[in-house]
Amino acid sequence: MTTLGTGVLRVRHWLRDHPLALDAALALAVLVAMIIGSFVHPRPGEVPSFGTRPPEVSAVLLMVAGAVALIWRRRSPMAVLAVTAGLTVVELVKSDPPAPVVMATVIALCTVAARTDRPTTWRVGLLTVAVLTAAAMCFGAAPWYSQENFGILAWTGMACAAGDAVRSRRAFIDAIRERAERAERTRDEEARRRVAEERLRIARDLHDVVAHHIALVNVQAGVAAHVMDKRPDQAKEALAHVREASRSALDELRATVGLLRQSGDPEAPTEPAPGLAVLDELVETVRRAGLPVEVACTDRRPPLPAAVDLAAYRVIQEALTNVRKHAGPGARAEVSVVRVGNTAEVTVIDNGSGGGGCNGDGGGHGLLGMRERVTALGGTLTAGPRYGGGFRVHAILPVEARTAESG
Length: 407
Hints:
The chain is an alpha+beta fold. Helix content is 62%, strand content 10%. The chain has eleven helices and seven strands. The protein has a five-stranded mixed beta sheet with strand order 3-4-5-7-6, with helices on one face. A two-stranded antiparallel ribbon has the order 1-2. Strand 4 (333-340) and strand 5 form a beta hairpin. The longest helix has 81 residues, at 147-227. The radius of gyration is 43 Å and the shape is rod-shaped. It starts with a helix and ends in a 9-residue tail after the last strand. Mean pLDDT is 77; it is low at 358-363 and 403-407.
């Protein structure tokens, strides 16, 4: 069965690649049918006899000409229809009884209906039916009401209907295929968009984690190197802070990278993403790095949605990192989280002189990442120098956040 199916498939592909050969085979089959039909001699009121009267030579030539014309029915359907219809009219007027040259016209008319639109099919079909039926009724030897004349009317009409049905089915299949291809393209574009958004989100998370903790490690390592000889106790304390900051960085990196694991991976992390619940720990690590931080107001109840909670934490983390890196010596920072109606406002200010957000303009990605994260939730973020010195980062986050995926 497999070999038979493969052979049929190969034949179909070959015929699809060589349509002229298929039309030639169809023309040969029509010619054989017309010649066999020409041996049938109709007798009014009696059963038709077969073989009592062979076809005339002229009728055979007309049948051969009509069959040969069918070879080009795909390339020039209108011309082939005109040729076969003309040969049929000649046979209807000349011979008694006429040979079934009309078979070639039926095939040509069906081809025209299948390869044109419906209005053209109606016009051409009605014209062909009218001409052939009128020629048979007016010039044929049989009475105008004979069944042979109405047979011509029926066969040409069915040819139009069959060709129109084939055209409608092809159009339906093409529409389905086009919809499937468009859906496939849309699905691919949506997949690429989601991949790009996920890549951007992971990049922001990695930047927030690495920038914050590495900045703390750098500061504490510098302190340890400076006081190693004179105050070893303070150096040990600084190294302990370095170890704690690096451990925190590794934990958050492990949690972030763990999102890329398969769902069934047993090593995937199960701890929740950081949020305002651990804000005190974040502030304490920054204080140990030498930056005085005051938490002016924190409004954590009712709890924020997970996406908003994470965004607020990341904004505070990145803002404090920028203060520590760029605000200069002697700077102090103040953090506040306030619920105002259906929004949560996060503010981080400092009194430094170095510009707490210069990394946003100097080639870094801190402010850009914060703005993207807040904007993705439908909020706004402003950052800039304060009047009288220092820098201010202010984020307004909607409590009912709309993520980029849902929007």
